[in-house]
Write a structure and sequence with these properties.
globular; six-stranded antiparallel sheet; 40 helices; alpha/beta; 12% strand; 974 residues
Length: 974
């Protein structure tokens, strides 16, 4: 065992706690039982079978209020694996559920037997017909697909609020729509063709001209059964009319019976039935969408009304004016949205009865936009709007940043409101539709019903389509609270169906919580046809039982998850999964959501249980060590949960007092440490990579892998021993070369000036000379200690750098320019909690400027570009995302190159200072997609603005990345 191996016991929850009724039982502590584990491992290989108790708990939760622990999780790589899994399930009488992003709100992505992860290995998009169509794999997020299509002026029809995380497979399987899709732009209407695997293992490509012939040969009984059902439905005029009427408004409850009316052959019928089937009919392996024009001329307004019913009453007028989106938000939603970055703080003071409509018009050109704006103005003129707080304007705007803020608030409905719910409560998200003309009445009736059952109102929705969402929070551990929820659901479903003839699920699909009410909405005849359809397609009931069809009237009360309290920073989490695509480790070990899910299961357990022990044993590496600590999860999370910060705190808790003292000693003596590090890097050039890899590898085994970095061949040589000479007299800014740029030099083979030399030279050319203080050696942004959770060392260096910077800048009179984005973030923001009160005052005086901002805003306007490189690919770092200066990176690059590309799959490289040297598998996983995209073609320059991230990308791509400021120096060199 390594000398300083951390003990997991320090993270064992200490407070006395009552075991939760839904805790994982002790018998599951050993993970997947035999022979299931061994048989699937023999069938698929060990890397495709996840079997530990930690694996099973990670996959037991999704964005829904339900929790079911699978027996095993499998991760197929191709259709052959899918077919093998289905064949195994048939032979063994087992059940299979497919899961992609886990953003579904009704438990569709949860299974109690074999759970199949179809997000890993299933991403990719191919643009067809110059963007008119797109072939997309099911693990691709909607946002990722639209990023590619935007280059062609196109986008997908479905636009769910969870587009950042939800995947195409789930969108099609649930017929999820969103803000603008309505009934005409959803998957059912815009999917051109599908490729899917039936429960039997038969693969169907609906675009194949021979598809029906092949299917009839492979599945004659299936084809006969589908055609018989079609004939039966078409022979019943009353039923046919009812089916057509049900889809005049948004409806995803039950199976798409209109597929029997719209399709003339078994393959065409299956193509329609697969949409919205929630994984109960087969696995969708590929989708070809007909895309839609991306109208870039956008005008939006957030209009405030005195009441929800007043807002709802205005909706038809905007529909008539041609609005593509009319979104409704009630007072509780608006007030809760203040937790979302960029939302005006005074929304917290809005009266409870206030409501708002987010209205948007999109046009392909200026005349069209002006026409829409005139129509919108005419509608607004006849409305009685209110302005309860100062930030409310009630005006249409074209400003992209303002519009983005409106949508960010709207899309955060579930997560922002849910994040502000009482601690320990479970969140239910309901979704229904009524004819748009009845929207105002439905709002009034819903509010009254919520009050009757003791639930706070929180209502939002796609008002243009009569589609409302509302939230319910209750304690699933209290039988009385569950009874209250059950009584509400009975009354709500009867109200929606009997009074409004509405859809109990407009776009979230049936799932577990509406399955018992399916017959209430559709009636016995149509419901029985759905059961018979399931029998025809999946006669053995292998796929996703109880998710769409369930005869148990209390099925929606089964599997409700408790939400035990965890660390304060993570407690608001509703497990929505928005954080997962941004997380560098989500394809390697765990995502931020899963880190919180695992912690919650520890809290459900009695102290010392075998399940708790098993989770703790795995948590060190899977959650803590492989967290990059980049906190991009905070940016993606609508309520700003920083799981990275929680992991840093756990790292701190694992440190022994001796480790903390050593870390503090390195901070106090950092001048000597810095000099030694530079000498070691310089010596490495003479020693050779292979010997250094061997020596550091042995040291890692002897001490601890999370403490001793591994030498990597991509580590550059040493920086010049001396920094450029500069003068304080006449300086426009103080230039602070980060310690990594004082230790490491440029990429191998680079012949130009070093980064410090480049910054000094280009600033002088712009007439804005900078000054490098003589005593920067021995100072640091403190990120070294902060990222590892060494609080004592962090305090030492944080206060040292602020005191030094205050002196260098003459009390803040000059800006402090920092040449590494992570160091800019550290000095500007991350050091603050560790400062003394006096030094916090000094920090307030400082203006910390990233070198990208300095170059783009201050230098570029004064420089003459003398030469450009042909093409450049950029790596925006996670710190740039936090600082908001990605556009400055692009601006500087565009001044230096004829063509500038930001990869669609660009993300955090996870090198994270030295974490990529501690866990190189983390960077390999985090950069795999971006590296593949970068290496799909040649570029003349590979640019970023953070030395350690550049090293990480060097390793990932085999290309030599360097700072964009070095490129700017070359472009302007006389």
């Amino acid at each position: 065992m390594p000398l300083l191996e951390p003990k997991p016991e320090v993270l064992r929850p200490g407070a006395a706690r009552t075991p939760s009724p839904d805790r994982v039982p002790d018998v599951r502590a050993t993970g997947t039982p035999e022979p299931l584990r061994g048989e699937l491992t023999a069938l698929l290989g060990p890397k495709k079978v996840l079997w530990t108790v930690s694996d099973l708990v990670k996959y037991a939760s999704d964005a829904s209020p339900y929790r079911f622990v699978p027996q095993v999780v499998v991760v197929p790589e191709d259709i052959d694996d899918i077919s093998a899994i289905l064949s195994y399930a048939h032979g063994k009488g087992r059940e299979v559920v497919f899961r992609a992003a886990g953003t579904s709100l009704n438990g569709q992505a949860q299974g109690e037997d074999i759970l199949v992860d179809v997000r890993h290995h299933w991403a990719g998009i191919e643009v067809l017909d110059d963007g008119a169509r797109a072939r997309i794999r099911p693990g691709t997020t909607v946002m990722r697909a639209n990023a590619t299509l935007a280059r062609y002026g196109r986008l997908l029809g479905p636009d769910p609020a969870s587009a950042i995380a939800c995947t195409i497979g789930g969108v099609v399987a649930n017929n999820a729509s969103g803000m603008t899709a309505g009934t005409t732009r959803n998957s059912y209407r815009t999917v051109a063709s599908l490729t899917f695997v039936l429960p039997s293992g038969t693969v169907v490509d609906t675009a194949d001209p021979a598809a029906d012939e092949l299917l009839a040969h492979a599945e004659p009984q299936l084809c006969e059964g589908l055609l018989a059902l079609k004939a039966e439905i078409e022979a019943d005029a009353e039923l046919t009319a009812r089916i057509r009427a049900k889809y005049e408004i948004k409806n995803t409850n039950g199976y798409r019976l209109d597929a029997f009316l719209d399709g003339s052959t078994p393959v065409q019928i299956l193509r329609g039935l697969m949409v919205g089937s929630e994984g109960t009919f087969g696995f969708i392996s590929e989708v070809v969408f007909d895309t839609l024009p991306l109208d870039r001329k956008v005008s939006s307004a957030l209009l405030f009304f005195p009441s929800l019913t007043a807002a709802a009453a205005a909706v038809p007028r905007f529909n008539e004016a041609g609005a593509i989106a009319v979104e409704l938000m009630d007072g509780n939603t608006l007030r809760a949205s203040v937790s979302v970055q960029g939302v005006p703080a005074d929304w917290a003071e809005l009266p409870k009865e206030t409501a708002a409509l987010l209205v948007e018009f999109r046009a392909p050109d200026e005349p069209g936009q002006e026409a829409y704006e005139r129509a919108a103005a005419a509608v607004v003129e006849g409305l009685d709007l209110v302005a309860p707080v100062a930030s409310v304007t009630n005006e249409f705007t074209r400003e992209a940043k303002v519009i983005s803020g409106y949508w960010k608030a709207r899309k955060a409905f579930v997560t922002a409101v849910g994040g502000s719910r009482p601690s320990g409560t479970t969140l239910i998200t309901e979704d229904f539709a009524v004819p748009p003309s009845l929207l105002a009445d439905a709002c009034e009736a819903l509010l009254r019903l919520q009050a009757e059952h003791g639930f706070d109102a929180a209502v939002a929705g796609h008002a243009a389509h009569g589609n409302l969402h509302f939230l319910l929070a209750f304690d699933a551990a209290k039988p009385s609270d569950v009874d209250r929820y059950a009584a509400f659901m009975d009354d709500f479903c009867r109200l929606t169906v009997e009074r409004f003839d509405g859809s109990l699920k407009a776009e979230h699909a049936t799932g577990r919580n509406i399955a018992p009410f399916l017959e209430l909405e559709w009636g016995p005849k149509a419901t029985e046809l759905m059961w018979r359809t399931k029998q025809v397609i999946d006669p053995d009931g292998v796929l996703a039982p109880r998710i769409v069809l369930d005869r148990d009237p209390k099925a929606h009360l089964r599997g409700l998850k408790t939400i035990p309290e965890v660390e304060l920073i993570a407690d608001p989490c509703i497990e929505c999964g928005f954080c997962e695509p941004t997380c560098p480790s989500h394809d390697l070990t765990t995502s931020p959501r899963q880190r919180i899910v695992l912690r919650r299961e520890m809290m459900r357990q009695p102290g010392g249980s075998p399940v708790e022990t098993g989770l703790l044993d795995a948590y060190g590496y899977e959650a803590i060590d492989t967290c990059a600590g980049d906190s991009t999860c905070k940016l993606a999370c609508p309520v700003g949960i920083d799981t990275g910060a929680m992991m840093k705190d756990f790292r701190h808790q694992r440190h022994s007092p001796r480790e903390e003292r050593i870390a503090a000693l390195t901070a106090r003596n950092f001048k000597a440490v810095e000099a030694s590090a530079r000498l070691a890097v310089a010596a490495a050039d003479r020693i050779g990579d292979r010997l250094l890899e061997t020596v550091t590898g042995l040291a890692r085994k002897a001490v601890r892998p999370d403490l001793v970095p591994e030498w990597l061949p991509e580590i550059p040589g040493a920086a010049p021993r001396k920094l450029p000479r500069t003068s304080r007299v006449g300086a426009s800014a103080v230039y602070y070369p980060a310690c990594v740029n004082r230790i490491f030099g440029g990429p191998e083979g680079h012949r130009g000036p070093s980064l410090p030399q480049a910054v000094v030279a280009v600033s002088a050319r712009a007439g804005k000379p900078v000054w490098i203080p003589d005593d920067v050696a021995g100072t640091c942004c403190s990120t070294i200690w902060h990222s590892k959770g060494y609080d004592e060392g962090n305090v030492v260096m944080a206060n040292r750098i602020v005191e030094a910077a205050w002196g260098w800048t003459a009390g803040g009179k000059l800006p402090l320019v920092v040449d590494a984005s992570s160091c800019t973030l550290g000095i500007a923001h991350e050091v603050v909690p560790y400062l003394t009160e006096d030094n916090r005052e000094l920090h307030r005086d400082l203006t910390v400027v990233d070198s990208l901002v300095w170059a783009a805003d201050e230098l570029l306007p004064e420089l003459t570009i003398l030469r450009k490189t042909g093409s450049a690919v950029l790596h925006p770092t996670c710190s740039m995302q936090h600082l908001g200066d990605v556009e400055q990176l692009r601006a500087v690059a565009e001044a230096c190159a004829e063509e500038v590309v930001v990869p669609d799959d660009a993300g955090c490289c996870a090198f994270a200072g030295d974490r990529g040297m501690l866990h190189k598998e983390l960077t390999a996983s985090a950069t795999a997609k971006e590296a593949a995209e970068v290496n799909s073609r040649e570029y003349d320059a590979y640019l970023s603005a953070n030395r350690m991230c550049e090293i990480g990308m060097d390793r990932a791509t085999g290309r030599a990345y360097h700072s964009v400021l070095m490129e700017l120096e070359r472009a302007t060199r006389p």
